[in-house]
Amino acid sequence: MILARLFRVSVFVFVACLACIVSAEPRYETLTVGKLPEATPHRIYISDIAIMHIVDGRMHVIDGDSLNYLGMVSLGYAGNAALSVDRKELYVATTYYSRLSRGERSDVVDIHDPQTLEHRGEIAIPARHAQALPYKGLTRPSSDGRWLFVQNATPASSVTVVDLKARKFAAEIPTPGCWIVIPSQTAGNRFSTLCGDGTLQSIVLNDNGGLKSRARSTRFFHPDEDPVFVQTDNIGEMHYFVSYKGQVHAADLSGEVPRMEAPWALASGKEARKGWRPGGYQLLAVHRNTGRLFVGVHADGGEGSHKNPAKEIWVFDLAQKKRISRLPGHNAIAITVSQVDQPKLFAIDGLKMGLAVFDAGKKPRFLKRMEQIGEAATLMELH
Q1: Closest C-alpha among 79, 77, 40, 33 to residue 61
Q2: Sign of torsion, CA 130 135 141 142?
Q3: What's the structural domain count of the chain?
Q4: Has residue 199 been placed in a domain?
Q5: What is the pLDDT along the chain (383 residues), one digit of tens a residue?
Q6: Beta strands of 288-376 (E only): which ranges?
Q7: Which residues, at least 6 apart from 12, have a Cβ–Cβ distance to it below 8 Å?
Q8: Helices H, strands E: what count in the chain?
Q9: Do residues 298 and 276 make contact, with C-beta atoms less than 8 angstroms apart?
Q10: N or C: which end of the chain has fewer CB within 10 A?
Q11: How far apart are CA 187 and CA 204, in angstroms?
Q12: Which distant-in-sequence residues (6+ apart) come within 8 Å of 101 by Cβ?
């Protein structure tokens, strides 16, 4: 009798539970896309060529204050990226192959929204885009936002001009013997490029983006004795270069003909004898309001050491041409500094792929690190 009663209760409970399951509304998982926080001057866009799987380059987006990883943008095959002047668009000049690493080649400028990182469109360009490590001057917008300049190599050197308003290829400017794009800060239709004969060449565009005129500076460095790095940073139209042996060159690019100033040395006599030299891929940065120059340097430099990671980062007052501080190098191969009143300096550790953060204010000092930001990162740009 007791067993029969238990059996009836068990059946009742089972049927009741089954009814609940059948009658309950199905619950589906809802997929959403997370929103990034509003960009600050310390949002960092880090270009990584991913050399071990180069067809799949990427850009890492990191909050430089919290050191939170925010997202990723595809760079394709050896893509080079740049933000628009107003920071509302992100451009990636890159290459795709129909069979991933072979087949039909397509070169485009991909357009992304920096706030959402979503792909917004593309502009077809000639299949001449330079497939090179990310450098600042390989893809640059004009100062008025009208043009995008893309460095080509076939291996002949030329620059593709993209009309960003019309969203189309505009022209190709031959630049034989010259490399890298340095946009004018005052004239949207002008850019300069560094030439192998020791000069700078400035190029003026016509209204259609084609060549209007070109002019060269006097020779300011000897390419066989002491070449300059192609990286540059600026205060207005005064652009700063450093040479392999540590000479600082300033170029006034405010006119159609570049004008050069007399160079000065980073290292003192004693330090120069110890072989302190600059090195890296994005090895210098300028904070414009304070007129400070930051340079990654290493000891025992010599022939072939120009890509060595930094043992120290030296800080200079450009007006006085004088070093004012020395910071630990953290093996930096790329550095950049924010342009705010309380700036931060960011450095990519080329050996461990970490990100070092420094206070770049009145008393520069190391703050913190983020480890393993990428695989083969060589370039940073701040929002």
Answers
A1: 40
A2: negative
A3: 1
A4: yes
A5: 554 554 454 544 444 454 555 455 677 788 877 788 999 999 999 999 999 999 999 999 999 999 999 999 999 999 999 999 999 999 999 999 999 989 999 999 999 999 999 999 999 999 999 999 999 999 999 999 999 999 999 999 999 999 999 999 999 999 999 999 999 999 999 999 999 999 999 999 999 999 999 999 999 999 999 999 999 999 999 999 999 999 999 999 999 999 999 999 999 889 999 999 999 999 999 999 999 999 999 999 999 999 999 999 999 999 999 999 999 999 999 999 999 999 999 999 999 999 999 999 999 999 999 999 999 999 999 99
A6: 292-298, 312-317, 322-328, 332-337, 344-349, 355-359, 365-370
A7: none
A8: 2, 29
A9: yes
A10: N
A11: 9
A12: 55
Amino acid at the residue 284: L
What CATH number does residue 89 fall under? 2.130.10.10
Say how many Å lie between the first and final Cα of the chain, rounded.
80
As a 3-state breakdown, the chain gives helix, strand, coil percent values, each rounded to 5, of: 10, 45, 45
Take residue 337 and report the two structure tokens written for it: 């500094």
Please check whether residue 209 lies inside any domain of the structure.
Answer: yes
Whether pTM > 0.85 for this model: the answer is yes
